[in-house]
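Researcher: Here's the sequence for the chain we discussed earlier.
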Amino acid sequence: MGNRGRFSLKDLFPKAFNGANGSDALSRASLIVSAVLIVVNLFVRTPVLIIAAYLFLGYSLFRMLSKNTVQRRKENEWFVNIGRKIWAKFRLIKNKWKDRKTHVYIKCPECKNVLRLVKNKGEHTVVCPCCKNKFVIKQ
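Model: Thanks. This is the structure I predict for it:
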């Protein structure tokens, strides 16, 4: 006849998680930080690390179970944008190292865009492709 009036975990989980934010980049990052702190705490044995690990774990669970998806989406977008900027800096450093014998990287004095130029001796006029500013460089 059915389960009328009976408690069932099978019915509870879909109701509890309906409309929840779920996992995103910021919640995964806080889970990773929590796991790293727990592993470090195995060697250092300080209560500060384990408290910090539990705080990061709690924050991650809070984000995953939150029903305020608009606010969680804004927070995640902010985190992803910061991550993109950091990875772009690392990528630029890697490319500078890889091209160090053939190219030189110079910032445009007007728009601060990084330009990749072939190494040539002497004085050259460079036109920035973004702001069309002309400037002279010496190599």
